[in-house]
């Protein structure tokens, strides 16, 4: 760790004379800057998508895992008794914070979008719904179903598992795709900078030859190239990150509850702390890519 | 310091020379002569590890160059000052930085201020210190190359036609510098066609002249 920090510090401090040994090459400088900036911009977008998907998955998982519904279908004369029995079962079930039967007005409100506001609830065999809120790590759904089957035969427990799990899984996959995109962006950056470094090394073959003839070690020659490409990647990525952050901040906001991935893209709170990591990571990728390219090239030219 | 034992070298199947042995001891002064294409430059490159022999062994301070690690070779080259035939400069750097390059790559650039002014004055290039090598004449480049070769006070100085592009007066000044360094215990090996240079050197110091001809290295002192 100490060695890595020392390497990074000495790289940033540099050696002005060593740097001057290698002539500046405009094409590779521009290519590295542009690549680092473009890749950092894409990384910002991928990161915001991944974080938004993560937030959505967490919200769905948390909120839906804490609520469930008990539906009681029974003849009208048994409805009140079965509802009371169900509430008693729920009251004595560990992991349930509260259980409440929906009022007729609430059931009316639920059905209004499908049947309109004039639905005569008292004339129809509408099941009674009980809203359950779990606490802590929740309740044992299998055990509760067994008790309800014995004591409230008309009760059906819906803990939302059927549709919650695919949604959470989809959001998780979206987050994974975002992370994969970031990895691919890093790999592409490494490939592009490797090509640029190889180009610079080839263009400076005569310089390398002269440096060797006067006693330069491989590390000295490589360092001049590595430092140059690392600093270019750092500055390019910093510019790309700033532009990306501004563009993401300017994206139109959506639903307040962030229930959609597309309208929830962006950074909130501590998420912004991820952004300053992008330029140093790009520099680290450039450092490794250039050092590898320099070592291979110096090996070939020996 | 530098020793060639039964060395052969081939270019693309054609043997340039073979069975060649040579030892550069501290304080020795060798001239290498021979017709163009005989392999003088190749022999010099073998001496500073720029080439490895096809067979036989070249040893720098006891260590064979064949299989020598690149960093080890670099450290050995700091002990050898080389004046290349084509000078070999970094064209984007001013002359002063080029002459100080061996100090720079050795991490001793701070010492340049102590040596560079006197050295440039000695080879008559003080007013060219900020000019780039392509702006210099052939003779000026060769003088700069000699200054670069000696700035580290190397143990061995190898020069390939160092007076090829300079006038008689300047060649005598350069020879005087080499003789002075030789008297300080440095080994000197110079490849040249300039017989007058060899005669001048003989008048000042004990010189051994070698002739590379017909793939063999022969002592040629008696002929001069």
Automatic annotation (TrEMBL), chain B:
InterPro entries: AAA+_ATPase, ABC_transporter-like_ATP-bd, ABC_transporter-like_CS, ABC_transpr_LolD-like, P-loop_NTPase
Record keywords: ATP-binding, Cell cycle, Cell division, Nucleotide-binding
Record keyword Methyltransferase present: no
Entry-linked PROSITE patterns: ABC_TRANSPORTER_1 (PS00211), ABC_TRANSPORTER_2 (PS50893)
Domain ABC transporter: 2-224
A biological process term (GO) from this entry: cell division
Any Pfam family: ABC_tran
GO cellular component: plasma membrane
Coiled-coil ranges (or none): none
Top-level taxonomic group: Bacteria
SMART domains listed in its UniProt record: AAA
One Gene Ontology molecular-function label: ATP binding
Protein's UniProt name: Cell division ATP-binding protein FtsE
Species of origin: Limimaricola soesokkakensis
Lineage summary: Bacteria, Pseudomonadati, Pseudomonadota, Alphaproteobacteria, Rhodobacterales
């Amino acid at each position: 760790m100490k060695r890595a920090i020392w390497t990074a510090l000495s790289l940033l401090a540099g050696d002005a004379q060593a740097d001057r040994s290698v002539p500046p090459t405009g094409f590779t400088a521009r290519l590295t800057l542009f690549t680092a900036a473009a890749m950092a911009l894409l990384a910002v977008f991928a990161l915001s998508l991944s974080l938004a998907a993560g937030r959505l998955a967490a919200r769905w998982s948390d909120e839906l895992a804490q609520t469930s519904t008990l539906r009681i279908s029974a003849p009208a004369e048994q409805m009140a008794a079965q509802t009371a029995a169900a509430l008693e079962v729920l009251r004595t079930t560990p992991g349930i914070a509260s259980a409440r039967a929906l009022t007729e007005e609430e059931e009316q409100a639920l059905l209004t979008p499908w049947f309109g506001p004039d639905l005569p609830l008292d004339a129809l065999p509408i099941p009674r719904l009980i809203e359950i809120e779990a606490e802590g790590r929740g309740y044992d759904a299998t055990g509760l179903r067994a008790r309800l089957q014995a004591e409230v035969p008309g009760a059906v427990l819906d803990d939302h598992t059927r549709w919650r799990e695919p949604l959470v899984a989809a959001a998780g996959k979206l987050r994974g795709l975002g992370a994969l995109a970031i990895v691919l962006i890093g790999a592409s950056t490494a490939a592009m900078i490797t090509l640029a470094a190889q180009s610079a090394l080839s263009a400076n073959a005569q310089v390398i030859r002269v440096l060797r003839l006067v006693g330069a070690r491989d590390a000295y020659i490589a360092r001049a190239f590595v430092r140059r490409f690392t600093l270019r990647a750092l500055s390019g990525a910093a510019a790309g990150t700033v532009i990306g952050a501004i563009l993401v901040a300017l994206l139109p906001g959506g639903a307040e509850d962030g229930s959609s991935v597309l309208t929830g893209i962006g950074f909130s709170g501590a998420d912004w702390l991820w952004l300053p990591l992008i330029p140093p990571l790009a520099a680290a990728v450039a450092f490794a890519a250039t050092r590898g390219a320099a070592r291979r090239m110096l090996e070939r030219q020996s | 310091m530098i020793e060639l034992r039964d060395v052969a070298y081939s270019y693309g199947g054609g043997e340039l020379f073979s069975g060649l042995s040579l030892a550069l001891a501290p304080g020795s002064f060798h001239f290498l002569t021979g017709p163009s294409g005989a392999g003088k430059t190749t022999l010099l490159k073998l001496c500073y590890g720029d080439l490895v022999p096809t067979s036989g062994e070249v040893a720098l301070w006891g260590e064979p160059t064949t299989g020598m690690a690149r960093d080890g070779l670099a450290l050995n080259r700091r002990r050898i000052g080389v004046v290349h035939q084509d000078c070999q400069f970094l064209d984007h750097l001013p002359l002063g930085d080029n002459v100080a390059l061996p100090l720079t790559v050795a991490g001793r650039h701070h010492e340049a201020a102590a040596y560079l002014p006197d050295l440039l004055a000695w080879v008559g290039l003080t007013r060219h210190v900020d000019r780039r090598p392509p702006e210099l004449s052939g003779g000026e480049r060769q003088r700069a190359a000699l200054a670069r070769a000696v700035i580290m006070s190397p143990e061995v100085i190898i020069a390939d036609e160092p007076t090829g592009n300079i006038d008689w007066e300047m060649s005598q000044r350069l020879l005087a510098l080499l003789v002075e360094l030789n008297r300080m215990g440095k080994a000197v090996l110079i490849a040249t066609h300039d017989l007058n240079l060899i005669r001048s050197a003989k008048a000042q110091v004990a010189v051994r002249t070698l002739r590379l001809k017909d793939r063999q290295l022969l002592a040629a002192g008696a002929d001069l």
